[in-house]
Amino acid sequence: MKRILCALLFSVFPALCALAAGPESSSTLYLVPNTHGTIAGWLVDFDVERNYVLNNYLAHLDRVKADPEYRFALSEAPNLISLLELAPNRLNELKQRLREKRVELCNGFFLEPTVNLSGGEALAQMGVTGLRWYEGVFGLRPRHCWMIDVVGLHRQMPQIVAGLGMETLFFCRNNPAKQTAFWWVAPDGTRILALNNAKTYADFRDVFTTKDPLSAAALDEISKTIDLKKEHSASRKALLSLAGAEDYSLPPARSEYPSEFLQQWNQKTPNTSIRFSIPSDYVDALQAELKSGETKLEDYTGDTAHSYNAFWMNIPEVKQEYRRSEQMLQAAEMLATAASLRERSAYPAQPFYHSWVQLMINMDRNVLWGAGTGAAFKDTKHWSAWDRFSSIQKQTQTAISTSLSALAGKGNALALFNPLNWERSDPVEVRLPAGMRLAGASCQQLPGTPAEALCAPRLPASGVASFALEGTPPGEAKEVPLEAIIETDDYVARIDTKTGDLLSLKTRSSGRELLGGPANRVVAESVKEVIKQFAGDFMVPRPQRKIVSCSSDYPAQVKLLRGPVATILQVTSEFQAGSRLERSTTFYRSSPRIDFKTRLDLKATDLVVSVDFPLQGTVRERTRGIPFGFSSTDPARLSRPADYYLNSDHVTYGYSEAMLPAIRWSNYQLAEGSGLALLDQGLTSHELNDHTVTLGLLNAQSNYRNTPNELLRGLGMHEFNYAILPHAGSWQEAQVPRRAWEFNAPVHENSGSRLDKPLSFLSTSDNLIVEAIRRVGSQIEVRLSEWSGVAGNGEVTLHLPHNGARLTNLMGEQGVALAGGPTYRFPVNPQQIVTIRFDTNSGVTEPAPILSWKSLVPAAKQKALNVRLQAKGHPPRGY
Description:
alpha+beta
């Protein structure tokens, strides 16, 4: 009431405000020192990076010992593995400080990943693996999800974090709410306490960098910052500050701080205390206010804004390899589960665990963002991202081959495994024995690859089908005279016979035109005049980029091939600065999907390369795939964060939501009812400007923050795979998410198999997508989600030996028994993540938590693991 009275009187009687408000109420700023680098390396290689980060944490631990007022937050399990390997003599000291609550292990995730570029199951495993690691090694579970360096968060994070049993989600940058604490509500209704520290994780830099006592003027500036925090805090009594000097922050440079600083502060500002804290100190204080009703929080549903938009198109190869590895790991676990229960094959629990750990390290922010020095990605001496991709793919391919061979038996047939939980007959690439074809399935030999064919076999849900082989090769795609009109069962398309551009696309069911201009036109752009530095971090939307040239500027050789499965348009031409471009467009006879394979031999750098799909009419709804679901927005109604929360490129170049990261798909619903979906295989930058959809292919920059990175430089051959899916109705009616999973989930084959009936391991109702089937101890774990955004009922039928089922949280805990068997039914909320545990009569050994990287690092690079540096601060420059 006093605040209201003050506001009413201030403009007329400002002197009365102080009388109405009375003395300023006391408040406490919970100042949380923190430091972080990366796990896989940012501006230096893996081994140098981990030495710097470890030494920084040890410096903070030293200050805890030296100053009774000091506390700090410690994040990421791999940093503790560095301690176990390089400084084991400090372990007991750390455990003592944890018991004293002077240090807090603040992140339940195994590490702090980018959360916008992986599938949902990978994020779930990031939490499950992290919590189990901390519990197994330190005997505790962290309370919080610590996402302070991510550059955007999606609306499923509350459900993921709460489903893991954590209490809060800490983050910085682009807060979508009005206050720094709020209830973030997921699409299924789950909510989490979200805590934001505005633009940075390094408040009060002067406290950490000064070597002399702070001046009165400097203390006044701190007071102003705190007053600003009060304006945006839900609580007037408990304020949050994540504090430090910068990335890789050290404890205060002045050895007498923080005790001396607190004495200075208390003498000057007695009504606002500062307490050096661990994160839970602030959380406990805020939760007490929430419980008493003293403080109330607003609800928010939706996503945050996204910054550093170059990250979505940097080094597409790392995103493609990640997507391939992720899909293979999920398929391998499914097959191994079935083989171990049906054929008593060994289930490789420990190798799967190691593959997940390596995948998680490659989810480290700068790796998956494609933003760092080249040594973090490929290096001859140090463990790198490509080492980990290679290891994952080798292990999972072995598991797939072994398991499929056990399930399929021996004979003369070809067995195909479908990892998706629905029957499918979409066109897939199949490797066939020379001169053979599948019986009972239409096949077409792929041009230039005689061992591979495009086939449309009917495959069971999450299962195996075997096909007899006939002694004739698949039908060839033969060149036919160029014609502008291409008709299929689903649409009528028109192409430009000179450039190969797609000019028109109409669905047969509606007859409506979807395209508003030439589509699949490749564009070369420059941002040099706009982004003066850090073009590997920042990106502006298309209207601010300079178009240098496009594929239609160059004479092209165009030919048309027609076969029993598809018609293929092949276009070759020169491109920017002597580059070479090959574009292949596949129009399937009996599938609405149109596939594009674009190969670019790039001869110039400092370019952005993208491809356009102009649409006919107004886009009324934009939807993109996110982990375990989707995000839909109205492009005409942007939700701009307050200036206090806006970060980086939004401040420098203007606020925009044009460029957004998408996982597997995005959809653009037109005002007249039809729509076009864009599907990708690891091309995550989906952009919308007015009525034009732009898919980012490549951001080629000559260096990353003045460090060399040949992958980012972009010279040489690239291959991009993407597709469009026209539809006459809603994206839900077209089942776009399922079509996107089909585009990303290859079938796996095994030759020399017995000819047998199709075998499904698991099937579900149409509203579910399964992301995991694995063994955990004596149980089978199945994780799935509702994909359409509509509440209803889910159904799962498990065709593997089991004795009952329970709904659990993501950790496999808090079980609620399900009636039935082998079919189980349960209610589902919109985009709900569902975990089911099935009991079995046998078990697999629980994997041992990783305590050393030696078993994962290639032998030739293990010597570098023993490197022990004393440097600290910000690598490579040090202090």
